[in-house]
Design a protein that fits this description.
Layout (H helix, E strand, L loop, with lengths): L1 H27 L2 H6 L1 E9 L2 E6 H14 L2 E12 L4 E10 L3 E11 L2 E11 L1
Parallel strand pairs: 1-6
Antiparallel strand pairs: 1-2, 3-4, 4-5, 5-6
Length: 124
């Protein structure tokens, strides 16, 4: 019973750590940290991009976005997890120097690490 409790606690703590790290990275425009949580292929919906991209191309797209949209603030408005699938998501609002974006991040537990499967920045 103790081991089940520990496994559950570790999973919840790990998810919170990941979303906290990603929240800070999105707010700061820290593509290096964001990319450390990306899977090898990521579905990216960002300005004029709506496609599955290799990690390197997804990083280029994020760098391009932040080069023209300096972040001012980011806050999570909702987060949750898919039952039985080991995946989590969060939705937030990103305010930049000129625009506001609704951000959606979907993560899946792969090999003991939560990795970004989908990242969406939609202008509000």
């Amino acid at each position: 019973m103790k081991s089940l409790f520990f496994a559950l606690f570790a999973t919840v703590s790990f998810g919170q750590t990941t979303s906290t790290a990603l929240t800070k990275a999105i707010a700061a425009g820290d593509v290096s940290t964001i990319s450390s949580y990306m899977d090898e292929t990521v579905e990216v919906c960002l300005l004029n991009i709506d496609d599955f991209l290799a990690k390197e191309k997804a990083i280029e797209a994020m760098n391009s976005f932040y080069a023209t949209h300096s972040p001012k603030s980011f806050n999570i408005i909702h987060q949750g997890e898919s039952k039985g699938k080991g995946s989590q998501y969060f939705i937030g609002n990103l305010k930049t120097d000129g625009d506001s974006f609704r951000v959606f991040i979907a993560l899946e537990n792969t090999g003991g690490k939560e990795l970004i499967q989908q990242i969406r920045f939609e202008i509000e």
